[in-house]
Amino acid sequence: MDVANLASQLNAGAILPEGAVILTLMVVLIGELALGRASAARWTPYVAIAGLLLSVGLLCLQWDLTPTLSFLGSFNADKLSIVLRSIIALSTLVTILMSIRYVEQAGSSIGEFMTILLSATVGGMFLCGAEELTMIFVSLETLSIASYLLTGYMKRDPRSNEAALKYLLIGAASSAVFLYGLSLLYGLSGGETHLSAIANALAQGTNHLGLLIALVFVIAGISFKIAAVPFHQWTPDVYEGAPTPVVAFLSVGSKAAGFALAIRLLTQAFPAVVEQWQFIFTALAILSMVLGNVVAIAQTSMKRMLAYSSIGQAGFVMIGFVIGTEAGYASMIFYLLIYLFMNLGAFTCIILFALRTGTDQISEYAGLYQKDPLLTLALSLCLLSLGGIPPLAGFFGKIYLFWAGWQAGAYGLVILGLVTSVISIYYYIRVVKMMVVKEPQEMSDVVLNYPAINWTPLGMRPLQVGLFVTLIATSIAGILSNPLFTLVNNAVVEVPHLQTANAAKTPMAILPTTTPELPAPLVSNSDSTAL
Amino acid sequence: MTLADGVQLVSTLILAAMVIGAALGVVLFDNIVYSAFTLGGVFISIAGLYILMNADFVSAAQVLIYVGAVNVLILFAIMLVNKQEVYSPVPRRWIRKLSAALVSAGLFGLLTVMLLQTEWLPNAAQTAPDSTVILIGEHFFSDYLLPFELASILLLMALVGAVVIARRESIVGEDTAIVGEQPAPVLELPERPREPVA
Amino acid sequence: MDLATFPWLTTIILFPLVAAAAIPLIPDPKGQGRPIRWYSLVIGLIDFALIVYTFSTQYDLSSSELQLVEVYNWIPQLGLQWSLGADGLSMPLILLTGFVTTLAILAAWPVTLKPRLFYFLVLAMYGGQIAVFAVQDMLVFFLVWELELLPVYLLLAIWGGYKRQYAATKFILYTAGSSLFILVAALAMAFYGDTITFDMRALGLKEFSLSFELLVYGGLLIAYAVKLPIVPLHTWLPDAHGEATAPVHMLLAGILLKMGGYALIRMNAEMLPQAHALFAPALVILGVVNIIYAALTSFAQRNLKRKIAYSSISHMGFVLIGIASFTDLGLSGAVLQMVSHGLIGASLFFLVGATYDRTHTLILEEMGGVGQKMPKIFAMFTACSMASLALPGMSGFVAELMVFVGFATSDAYSLAFRIIVVFLAAVGVILTPIYLLSMLREIFYGAENKDLTSHEALIDAEPREVFIIACLLVPIIGIGLYPKIITQIYDAKTAQLTLRMRGAVPSLAQAPVPMGSSPAGMTTHFYQAPQL
Prior knowledge:
The complex is a heterotrimer. Chain A is mainly α. Chain A is built from 23 helices and 2 strands. Chain A has helices at 3-10, 16-35, 40-62, 79-106, 110-129, 133-151, 158-188, 195-204, 208-226, 234-241, 244-269, 274-297, 302-323, 326-357, 368-371, 373-387, 393-407, 411-436, 445-448, 460-476, 482-493, 496-503, 522-530; strands at residues 69-70, 75-76. Chain B is an all-alpha fold. Among the domains of chain B are: 9-83, Up-down Bundle (Four Helix Bundle (Hemerythrin (Met), subunit A)), CATH 1.20.120; 131-168. In chain B, 65% of the residues lie in helices and 0% in strands. Chain B contains 6 helices and no strands. In chain B, helix 1 runs antiparallel to helix 2 and helix 2 (32-52) runs antiparallel to helix 3. Chain C has a two-stranded antiparallel sheet. By secondary structure, chain C is mainly alpha-helical. In chain C, helix 2 packs parallel to helix 4, helix 6 packs antiparallel against helix 7 and helix 9 (210-227) packs antiparallel against helix 11 (246-271). Chain C has helices spanning 8-21, 34-58, 90-107, 115-134, 138-147, 149-159, 164-191, 200-205, 210-227, 236-243, 246-271, 273-300, 304-323, 328-359, 375-388, 395-408, 415-444, 450-453, 463-481, 484-503, 506-509, 522-526, and strands spanning 67-75, 80-86. Chain C is 70% helix and 3% strand. Residues 516-532 of chain C have low confidence and may be disordered. Chain C has one domain. Chains in contact: A-B, A-C. At the A-B interface, helix 2, helix 4, helix 5, helix 6 and helix 7 of A face helix 4 and helix 6 of B.
């Protein structure tokens, strides 16, 4: 059997995007060895960016292919996974843009940073399409271990060490719990590892208690990844101690991978206990929204505030997940896509500020508008978008989530989401107020001594590019969101197991009267009733 | 019950008792070196259980990797650090110990009930294979090909990461331009640590 | 270009927004903001001219239908449509917005702090506020309603008085919190029944159950009660108005408060008539409380801005009574009161700002006797106060009279209730001259404050200020003498709306509309214009 034949039998084309990332990773690693560390900063990031762009391009090409399982059922390249893999690849791309200067200024080696970051990306991307328990676990561990390493990358800083150690210990424990849950699934299904086979086997059995315990353990593992309360305790310390670009990746890419895992594993392997997992996730969503947003108010450090706010944001996304309708999943992916830009935009801004002033205290932002209007504008827009102020992208993301939630009848969750998003407006706008409203005499010391804006040093240009890209996306992705809506709807519509999951729910009537023709004029009718 | 079955049952019980006993030792010993050694005992006992399940390759791998590599590494690490630190006793420590014991016991009870309640589906392939190594190899290169290959990326990345963490840094700093007013300390976060809250 | 199908409203809304986005590109060599000021003024004038042109050529006064309709699918997956239109309710307020905002830009001439940001925000508000009155889709309505949140916050927080940050935060929490009800109501109404739509007219046609209507009505009432404001939810307003600078103040009093009244009529009264029939007595009582409580509180205020702010609240009580009167005349009066107060409030607040610029204090005790030095300002202040206290011949008088007569002749309430309400509201009307005139006396006469009157900065009004007040007084007096210039815009609409509201009250459904069942309503009888 020749190689081409084998590849077509395995349907290996499905993992070409991951292949591109792996190839890039190899090029970066070997190239840095061959050419030396001194020049690495000048080319490795750009190679990595090119590789990720290639990977996203390949994902786009795969969009129209009919999804088939590849590698004998290990990997599923359906549209859902394509969108989620693109989100992860894009988040890494923006993370690289913001990390060049950061890593360079800290004096660390950038080639290895890229290598580890790209492996994390590979892990996350495989996780989005993983269809089989072993594959799920190995890709999850690839992502996790890379995240631990990245967290501890600033190894002389005790905060970074502390963060890495905490993350490692809690992460290892959660992986163990997750693995135990998977092993129970394996046992309960009589030795199956493919998700669809597990679902078939479990559909006949009556092992309710065992299935529930497996479910709880699996959810514990997933919740750790998406930092849902009460599995969030690692988040603030890790976010504060880890290098900021890594935090950006953890809060977007890693979280998206966690949600991808949740969608695939829970909807596919646990159809027998849909109500139970939706109940558990409802509780997690409520806790995350309330605790994340309320505790964020009290934070004084920008990174910690964003850590708590990202917990709250994950709570919003979970609304889309628990309602279990097609619109729910679509809104969830739509929000993740929007969140990618606005959150990474915010992180780009705080990295820029930290590089120029050496601090991330919120109070130190006072009066920044006078010194750096561009940074103020970008950070304000990203934070306001996170808070859901129209017409920025975040508003549309939240509207879609709440729309889907209301459609599915989750009134309580939607109202709670609305109330907590008002709370979130309060703490986001506090930062905006700090930057814009403060008088010149109230300016903080670091802003008073703000260095002249200089985009020429190595790695500043990519930072600038990242800033503009995220800023533009955050500003207009909401207003012009029609194509994105079509994209996420298509991604969800063609996935069979999401259809079965929502068959349990009673779907509302088909979507609205969207024809441009006007409804019958009000007057004639009301007149006839009145008279 | 044949003799073989009887031997198997007795060995299982003995091994299970060893696992539990050694694991308790890991948790309960105050001296960390004792804990590390009993951990080795846990690994060995589990390897024994694998043999009883006809998983000879896994058993051998368990001994080689967990006992031979992981446990020895742990011992090395403990002995290299060799730092005697006297911890001040935590007040009301028994409450923590008691609650931990309660949680563990509850979990144990729950899992036991679950194990007994569940009707485990019989595995399709009941007959013991001739050679587990061949079987594992076949799986690696057929239906588990992708995770097997992905594991290589995982290992590569772990290797790189270990090198990054362990290597002694030569300070590069000189030629890098400084953007902020002060040069950032090398290999530290550019953000200043927070002032401790009074 | 086909004039009839040209998207006029979209152009009117987007033009200031796009123009605002260009502000960072304008060169400003001196840093005083002079080119930006002129640029904004020109944009404001062009947009106002567009509004007037659209109104005069494309708008049919005799129709009660929605006109200038534009519908574009925005996000079909959500049923979100960019759907605009103007009818008798929106058109006068759109005209008012264009007029007051343009004057506010002119009034902002002395603002030199961060001019780019200031004019950017004002222009953004310009488009956003017109959008609130023109949008016909509930979800987009929520969007534009929230859109005004941030500009007002920043305008308050940067350019306000000493307690500005407190006031701005209070404003944003009140408004953002209350606007949740709009979104919840929009979702609830859209998903009711078996079709999903956010189109306001389609929603108006849906048959809601009574309990559902009551719930939604209550929610929307809270949202709009914060904006209008209605008394227990008004506490943000004295703070916000007390701290805002004059041009922002003009926008707040002139336009923002009207958004609440407009939405109350557009949604509560028009789309939920069954609930409106049950809630109406409560609205009347709230209206009376508004009038009397705010007038009494205003009486006790020693801060000029807070005094006027409370008088605004008091005047908004009439809007509530008019909405709940179930007569054509009352509803007509409510709309006229909104327009009239938009003009009067803007002028009064502008004058307060002008006075503050000279005296640098807002405390009445510290002023006094400045009338000698500033006769023009005194004259203008007096004229505007007269308008505010409803002097016959000014717009406030007509509006309040229409509300009174409309309510007094309403057949929806018992005679005793009507007598009590009219009596209490009349007490409020009597209180207004007391506090306004005593305020005038304290500022301009009273014990002379030598430090103040001898101060060099105490100069009389400059031509720009006289021009602004003249611009505002012309329509105030014009409406007072000949109200039909405004009422003709919406007579057809209010008549149709009254019929709809009455249709939901069983006892009124068959009864003839009292005093003026003709579309032109009672105004034409009452103020019969000489036939030209």
